[in-house]
Write a structure and sequence with these properties.
Number of domains: 1
Radius of gyration: 21 Å
Low-confidence stretches: 3-8, 10-20, 210-217
Distance between the termini: 79 Å
Mean pLDDT: 85
Structural class: alpha+beta
Largest sheet: 10 strands, mixed
Length: about 220
Amino acid sequence: MPAKTTIVRATLLVSILLIVGSAAADPAPPWKPDGTSDGLWIERRDVRGSSFDEFRIIAVRALSLERMCDAIFTGGGKVQSSVRFKKREVLRETDTERWAYEQIAVPWVSDRDYVMHTRLEHPATSGRCEVSFETQVDPSRPPVPGFVRIPCIRGHWWVAPMADGKLWLRYEVFSDPGGGIPAFLASGGQRSAAVDFVKAVILRAGLPDPLARGPGT
């Protein structure tokens, strides 16, 4: 083998080892217990480079995987929770992706807006359900006077059946509300909003299917 080829391969190998070693030496901050609410386990953790925490909500529920996945992806933009939406507009969508513009009312400070991209990564037919969401810059919806554009919301749903037939639910969310709001003031509201949203989605998944009801019922 030519010496030059050997040197190149050795350099690449060292680079890969350095990247892997760096990732192993710098793991994500650990999750910390943060109480419970009506059977939901709540955790939070630090986010590097931000003063805001990431929240994780875990639950076990006797629900249909199909109904839960539909409530998350299809109905997630329609649930009623403590977040007060002033406007919701679907910009475009496919069977597995949706882009929506949303405005929310925020007490005491300026209202917020953002464009959210939601993706159905694994449908219920795969044996589990995974849905991710993240704010994006969309030229069709520039900042609106009177609203603060939220710089970042991102998160993930993971739902899978357990051996006893119940569902294991995990919801993770991080948000930076922007506008100079101190983290210590926003933390309580962010926690409550995450918990209320999960409760609302679970409630929606457990409601009777209107299409399954007969006439007059």
